Amino acid sequence: MQRFFKFTLPNSLRSVLNDPVNILRPATIGIASFQSRTLFPRQLATPTACSSTLAAQQKRTVKIYTRTGDKGLSSLFTGERRPKTDEVFQALGTVDELSCAIAIALAHIDQQLDKVQPNAKILNVCEQLEHIQRRLQAVGSSVATPLPEPGADHAETHPERNPRYSHVDFPSEVVADELEQWIDQMTEELPPLRQFILPSGGLPGSALHFARAICRRAERRVVRLNTDRPYPTVESSVVRYLNRLSDYLFTAARYVTVLMCLPEKYFTVPRGEKKV
């Protein structure tokens, strides 16, 4: 990568490119970070340049449609065909929906940055959110490659994937720990939470709260893949990550709201009603 630049890559960008968990995921390619937006300003993306680039890509791009799902079936990463109503596709679809919700939150933050003075803390949160999108792509790869039945294939007492699919294994500790570190850093700068808050914080904060709610649903969908079957089909590290991610999104929603001086609404009992 260095030969394409006349300057040194930022440490955070280099860490993404050097991380095998990220670089092996399809979503790593083509997802711009806020640092890349700084390195390549919007003015450089002229209509002529964009149209010529798009035309060049179209010549070498494989067709997006395959027609293989026209009968209501879809494939897992292992090649197994299942109905599109299968719980595994419900989980995969919700994880995809979560990544899209995070993209919407990033777009709202980006627009709000045009109205306020941007600071490194907000840009740092944006980089974290884009990093999370790449992690969610890895979550999808893991969920789409169900663990085998204990005792079958290469599994013994604990289910393990065929070595052919070992590259989709989701890391057990590091990824959830990074979320906890980010949560702790933001919490130190936030006012103490002494009462319930309502989803709020303008478009940036509200979008992150919406992503949090979708994250909880994704977690429920994934957990069901383990509880409604005779044996677990999803790694426990995936469940742990999604559980911690909803906490992160809640904290990030409050953090962005405070940094952008947006209103945060607290739960209060309506007049004339008893306290819950």
TrEMBL record:
Reactions listed under catalytic activity: cob(I)alamin-[corrinoid adenosyltransferase] + ATP = apo-[corrinoid adenosyltransferase] + adenosylcob(III)alamin + triphosphate
Basic and acidic residues compositional bias, start-end: 151-166
SUPFAM superfamilies, sorted: Cobalamin adenosyltransferase-like
Signal peptide start and end residues: none
Domain Cobalamin adenosyltransferase-like intervals: 64-256
Gene Ontology MF, one: ATP binding
Gene Ontology BP terms: cobalamin metabolic process
One Pfam short name: Cob_adeno_trans
Swiss-Prot/TrEMBL keywords: ATP-binding, Nucleotide-binding, Transferase
Region entry Disordered, spans: 143-166
Subunit structure: Homotrimer.
Similarity comment: Belongs to the Cob(I)alamin adenosyltransferase family.
Summary of the function given for this chain in its UniProt record: Converts cob(I)alamin to adenosylcobalamin (adenosylcob(III)alamin), a coenzyme for methylmalonyl-CoA mutase, therefore participates in the final step of the vitamin B12 conversion. Generates adenosylcobalamin (AdoCbl) and directly delivers the cofactor to MUT in a transfer that is stimulated by ATP-binding to MMAB and gated by MMAA.
NCBIfam families given in the database record: PduO_Nterm
Protein name: Corrinoid adenosyltransferase MMAB
Species the sequence originates in: Paragonimus westermani
Source species taxonomy: Eukaryota, Metazoa, Spiralia, Lophotrochozoa, Platyhelminthes
